[in-house]
Give the backbone structure.
Amino acid sequence: MMNSLTIFNPATGAPITDVPCDDGTTVASKSLRARAAQPGWHSVALANRKACIERFRAFVVRDLESLARTLTQETGKPIKQSRNELNGLLGRIDFFLGAVDCVAQTTTVFNEGGMCEQIEQMPLGVIANISAWNYPWFVGGNVFVPALLTGNSVLYKPSEFATMTGLAIARLLHEAGVPDDVFVTLVGKGDVGDALLGERIDGLFFTGSYSTGASIARAVGPRMIKLQLELGGKDPTYVCPDANVKNAALSLADGAMYNAGQSCCSVERIYVHESIHDEFLQHFVDEVKTFKVGDPMSEDTYIGAMTRSAQLDVLDAQVNDAKSKGATLHIGGHRLPTPGNWYTPTVFSNVNHTMELMREESFGPIIGIQKVSSDDEAVTLMNDTRYGLTAGVFTPDEAHARSLLSRVNAGSVYWNCCDRVSPRLPWSGYGDSGIGLTLSTYGVQTFCRPKAWHLRSA
């Protein structure tokens, strides 16, 4: 009898449903099917592969409300934010559809004296994608859409915390014409992911924690396959003395608390020049107080439930550590005494880098605001991390912002904005934020391997 996975509603703690899950035997079988199906999918004309993805996009639009409700039900994300994710996915699909022709075309780089040299873009083959729960449509779509467009087959393991969404993705892709064995869903927890790592694959794309990413790297590193790891961040922002204080505070409050802070690019550290620190802090706290915590299905809820109950322990530990080391708590700092995974929006000041809050990834609705006396101090603190995903600066002076951000080790940088991802720009990081990239034309190319052709006419 096949094992099952119980899906829980994080807002209530109640079970939603049980779904059949995979084991080593079914993972191996599905892997063989994906391997056998990949050459046939690659032989399908690019225009026809694009047509499948275009139909998939149309089906997302058609079913958007029910898909949003499923996402909210299993992750605790507020319903408006679930709709935002799905609507945002549409633009990413449009970008990939527009970019793939140029990226996938064969290029002639030399043609003289009877010798022609060409570069052909070949698919990697079988892509294993272990995806994330916090933005399953965004994060998954960054991988499976360009992978399918470039002729790869995909073994897709959604997070166990977003399984129903993963199954919905598969259903719509298959309805759109992607063969069942070209996009194959694997359901289960970490043991299913471990089984997938043991299969014959040509690329492993993972989004999640540093610890799991490091474990995956140890497992597949010796196998010489494409390995891409999108890991965590401890994303800093510096508010300069000439910034529009209120605008910066409102923007950063949203950047820190959106999706209950469960984003790899959520603002996790804020440094504010001492000349405006108190004013900024007041605006920031006042704004956070307006964020409604409540039923994720309610239209006016801004902060929903935490998806994973284990993260509540992480937040409690960071709060207790900050308090014990002299930080000032302005709001929140505790769980809600109700069923489900609830944590109050939490703001600290008088923080420093001896505190876990300013060093370790929080992935929750919690923020530390630290006073600094100079640009140099701010940059030094921003770089005092093992991560390097995003960083931002608020100032009206673009040249000043560029000068500061050029000194910060981060894959994406923001001037007067935060917590933003664009399909046109590569998504990558420094240090423990991972290796490889998604998005942009580079994020399409990553699913291809160049084949060099030397062609001499007779």
Remarks:
- The chain has a mean pLDDT of 97.
- The chain has 14 helices and 20 strands.
- The radius of gyration is 23 Å.
